[in-house]
Specification:
The structure is a homodimer of 242-residue chains.
Chain A lengths: L10 H14 L12 H8 L3 H13 L3 E4 L5 E4 L4 H18 L4 H22 L2 H14 L6 H17 L4 H18 L6 H19 L3 H28 L1
Antiparallel strand pairs in A: 1-2
Chain A binds a DNA duplex (30 and 30 nucleotides) through α3.
Protein name (chains A, B): L-lactate utilization operon repressor
Keywords (chains A, B): DNA-binding, Transcription, Transcription regulation
InterPro entries (chains A, B): GntR_C, TF_FadR/GntR_C, Tscrpt_reg_HTH_GntR, WH-like_DNA-bd_sf, WH_DNA-bd_sf
Chain lengths: 242, 242
DNA sequence: TGTTTTCATATGTCTGACAATTATCTATTG
DNA sequence: CAATAGATAATTGTCAGACATATGAAAACA
């Protein structure tokens, strides 16, 4: 079956789109083997390089995997959470860093979503997630910790909070919001007093989650949101003044 | 400057990763022109096909755009919301459809996030978004509407609700959650009574948003969540019984 | 000065070749 | 007969070189 393409536009993009659509609508199920490169050449009436460029596009989106050898080929890949997380974080991070999204907007989005998560986390938290949260709080209190390491620990703390909700879809959706904030947070230099304040709020939050107190957790998150905004304001206005 | 690669692994993937890292960490700023394909060949000591496959991988992630001609080349692309939306929706949809995420989990994630959005939407809604919501409610009431069209309108309604919060980051994050549900919703056949119930709740929700009544909006969304789950339950148990 | 032509440069595509990997078949040998 | 070693075929990965096409800039010309 020959598939027609528009010769004036990018051929490899068109081929990739055709195959991608087939994967999304289920025509090509998971683990199905695509035709070999040579067969695709014939089907789309293009050269092998063009077919290969199309396949690489799909591989970049984790839609296919390839195997060499006799029974090899390109196979529809089951999109796993790890790959999806990675893509989501890359996209979210770039979206924020390239579009000069102001800190307040990103911050609002992040804490709004986290607050939505907190009631579920309070209800379903396991000792495992609580231990992670406590461990990160401890790390945040260590002296000599760099700002970057402090931010990284902050992200880990909040990821644990989200994961405690035990809903992988929710975790996936929030991964972008939480992780993408890190580069923005890294622009802030935290004073010792700032850190103390954050650590105290983190402790309050962990306690509230441990006690399954959703109302208190929400209150703490609101405070954390406004404190974070205030710190950012201080830093940015000071920087603008110079 | 020659960059060393591991010759035993996929060369084009390594080259793509190297350039991607440079874009993410800001070494290559937006609109910067990458070296020409020939120059990249020399830099990585590979053939042009390999370089091109690497560039196509980056293009698939909307990280670069290419231009032909004398002053052409590959340029770091500013990731815009439209591209980010599209990628997010593709990834989310596939994640749900390929991993047999059960309806309840996906539904919980979606409504949890939407409920987080509702207070902001109630505060900031404009006549524009309200009009979209009302228009979709009207469409949902038309007789002879297919299940698919009903679901599509449902998605449009909820997107308008989310967009009313006027936080593009939030809209982006929720796009995945809301749109990815559509294929799952399409598996449900709605009875006329189901539709009436949903339309009534949508109307209540639109009214609550119009009156800036966040508490009422949250209540309606909770009801909508449990009703949706109940409908899905009915359908799936009936289907399992056959 | 304004227009057309030419040219240089870059990506897009094609062809053909060889390398590397791997499952399967085949022959050999104990 | 069974186990092993080797040949074989299919498939992706990489390379080299060519031509097509698009496009901005310089050169030639009116």
């Amino acid at each position: 079956m020959k598939t027609k393409l528009d010769p004036s536009a990018d051929l490899s993009a068109q081929i990739a789109a055709a195959i991608r659509d087939a994967i999304i609508d289920g025509t090509l199920p998971v683990d199905e083997r695509l035709p070999s490169e040579i067969e695709l050449c014939e089907q789309f009436d293009v050269s092998r390089s063009t077919v290969r460029e199309a396949l690489k596009r799909l591989a970049a989106q984790s839609l296919i995997r390839t195997q060499r050898g006799a029974t090899g080929g390109a196979f529809v890949k089951r999109l796993n959470y790890a790959d999806a997380y990675a893509q989501q974080i890359t996209t979210s991070t770039l979206l924020l860093s390239m579009n000069e999204v102001d800190f307040a907007t990103a911050c609002e989005a992040r804490f709004t979503l986290e607050r939505a998560c907190a009631p579920l986390s309070a209800k379903r938290r396991t000792p495992d997630h609580l231990a992670t949260m406590r461990a990160e709080i401890h790390r945040q209190g260590q002296i000599g910790l760099s700002d970057e390491a402090f931010c990284a620990s902050d992200v880990a703390f909040h990821r644990a909070l989200v994961d405690a909700a035990h809903n992988p879809v929710l975790s996936y959706q929030l991964a972008g919001a939480v992780e993408a904030m890190q580069p923005l947070m890294n622009m802030i230099t935290f004073t010792a007093r700032d850190r103390d304040k954050i650590i105290r709020l983190h402790t309050d939050l962990a306690n509230a989650i441990e006690q399954e107190n959703a109302v208190e957790a929400d209150r703490v998150l609101q405070t954390l949101a406004s404190e974070t905004n205030a710190m950012a304001d201080t830093v940015f206005t000071a920087r603008a003044g110079r």
